Amino acid sequence: MSPASFTKHYAEPERAAGAVRHYRWLTAHAKPLRQPALHTAGPRFLTFERIEGRPVRPEDLPRVAELLGHAHGAAWASDLHSASLDTPHLFEDGTLFDDYLGPRKVALRRRHEQGYLPNKTALHAMLGLLQATAEGPCVFYKDSNPRNFIITAQDIVAVDTDDLSLAPLGYDLAKLVATLHLTYGPLTDQAVTTALLAYNAAARRYDARLGTTDRGQLDSFLGLHAVLTAPYVGRNGYHYSLPLRFTHRGAS
């Protein structure tokens, strides 16, 4: 194998096929995202162009936020303007593109079973928060954590297409903010606000309705990510934890 290649292995053929499908969808509909070239797609492996660089650091947040805003705006304009957050979307081959609500309801109930939500009151609060955030234009979520982008000398390259689902504007940005916190410790309020402004400005270039995510919405997404990422604290370079909050906008 060429030293300029990177091979990712999968235990199940379905996971490899899904990653390829996601990769091709992003290539077609989220053109601002640069991805490594896909050289070979086998039944249980994918071989990509090797990209030399480093993961995202806190100082990169505004640049990556701007890139996400462009990618989300482009995907909405290209394919997702008619999608709904509570209904699976269809890929061109008829395969389902997971909706926003269904998989996360399952995941939140699992976190309760695992003990990350202390009681059913907390679970119902988080389910209410999830429902409250399912509003506005529909874009995509690709698990934006610091390892899923590579910062090179010239560019930002998006990698790992194992996960792809529908999501509200700002949800994937909040995942990046949350995982930077988990990796490096709390970010300043100014850093988060600056990133949100960059994200909104980029998304707004595709339609005026796309640049309206406010800080309250972002904080609600961060509350969800705190619960959803709780099992990974202490793994994958996540040395810090996010505070768990069991109330949502409009709740007492």
Instruction: Identify low-pLDDT runs.
Output: 247-252
- Main β-sheet description: 3 strands, antiparallel
Which CATH class is shown?
A: Alpha Beta
Number of helices: 7
What topology, given as strand order, has the largest sheet? 1-3-2
Instruction: Give the integer mean of the pLDDT values.
Output: 94
Looking at the overall shape, the CATH architecture is Alpha-Beta Complex
**Tell me, what's the shape?**
globular
Q: In terms of structural class, how would the helical and strand content be classed?
A: alpha+beta
Which fold name is given in CATH as the topology? Answer: Aminoglycoside 3'-phosphotransferase, Chain: A, domain 2
Number of strands: 9
Strand content: 5-15%
Order of helices and strands: EHEEHEEHHEEEEHHH
**Count of all domains:** 1
Alpha-carbon Rg, integer? 18 Å
Approximate helicity band: 40-55%
Structure description:
This protein has 252 residues and is of the alpha+beta class. The chain has a single domain (52-232), classed as Aminoglycoside phosphotransferase (APH), C-terminal lobe (Aminoglycoside 3'-phosphotransferase, Chain: A, domain 2), CATH 3.90.1200.10. The protein is built from seven helices and nine strands; from the N terminus they run E-H-E-E-H-E-E-H-H-E-E-E-E-H-H-H. The strands form four sheets. The chain has a three-stranded antiparallel beta sheet, with helices on one face. The chain has a two-stranded antiparallel ribbon with strand order 4-5. Helix 2 packs antiparallel against helix 5 and helix 5 packs across helix 7. It starts with a strand and ends in a 24-residue tail after the last helix. Mean pLDDT is 94; it is low at 247-252.
